[in-house]
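Re: the pair you flagged

First of the two:
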Amino acid sequence: MSATESASTPALPFLHAIKVVAEDIDFMGHVNNARYLNWVQDAVLAHWRGIAPAEDVASKAWVALKHEITYRKPAFLEDDVIAQTVLERFNGARAFYSTLIKRGEDVLAEVQSSWCCIDAETLRPARIGDHLREFFFPKGE
């Protein structure tokens, strides 16, 4: 399968725990909407660092290209929140993620985002190697 094709085996969801702290709360008493984007970034980067081989983690970095977010319910101080992120596909230097921000079974926000992989040294776009497909889209057991 080439990098331009969609994955036939879906990626496994990656769970990233989030602790809501006082700095996240806005004047209305709930988490500021902008903070959700930080959480998505934290989850996507944790996913990359936790699954990609060390040499790829060291030589590549990520920049966000686009976020589309739908807010469903507010989060509050000391809520236990999880970012459940799934790599949908990658193509060339771009990766496409779907992330749910959840408190228990409640979906607080849904986020579709696209990211550009860059070379950590030159800061120029870097193709996501096909060798990474096996790490992010494992074959069924």
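Second of the two:
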Amino acid sequence: MCQLLGMNCNVPTDICFSFAGFRARGGLTDHHRDGWGIAFFEGRGARVFLEPCASADSPVAELVRRYPIRSLNVIAHIRKATQGQIRLENTHPFQRELWGRYWIFAHNGNLCGYQPSLSGRFLPVGSTDSEHAFCHILDALAQRFPDAAPSPRELHAALRTISIEIGRHGEFNFLLSDGDYLFAHSSSRLVYVIRQSPFPVAHLSDEDLAVDFNEVTTPDDRVAVIATTPLTDNETWQSIPPGTLQAFHLGAPVALGETSTVAAEIGTGLPRSA
């Protein structure tokens, strides 16, 4: 299983601490060695680092771990290849433009027999099911809202419908962001923690490293961290139930409408629902 990491905040925040533990899962504390990537939204821009190699051995990943890039939304991925060769073009997260802003996407899972019909506006560069799914999502959104970006509620409803459609083909955990909201779809496993005042002294599960967030934050700061499995061993992480599309905004989960999807329930033994 690939590893996902996301961060959504109410003030620009660096992800150095969480990325230190996450990076170790790419070949040190876990067996995922087929590539890694991370994307930071900065204003209207997006800074993306990608490598088709193990993050635990990467000097670039070490640079990211030490470089305090501050962002409101971050998405990172560690790859265990299931479809597509180990190449740069198949490395997550993927980036595209829609409605005059960048979108970032990363996927964990395997979609079988998945051959979406695309209009041609968004086409995959690589050969992964993940990038095909990203192009499918943006294609469907562009066709549904051709003139301008929809409201957050309309966007959430559309993403839920698309997630149900794509999720029928297999495991479809993903993180998606336009730099404002971060959407997390749990097909089998995703967890999150909200860090806010009073802040904890957090300790990583994958590395002997702790930080007292009271020393590096203000009382008004709030950060949501989303991951495949908990990154720390002394915080209470909340599960995003399988079959759920959850939105995050300004460092907290937000209710934008119905969250249940069918995608996560395929192969999990859970009842089917729409």
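The helical segments are 16-24, 59-66, 129-144, 152-167.

-B.
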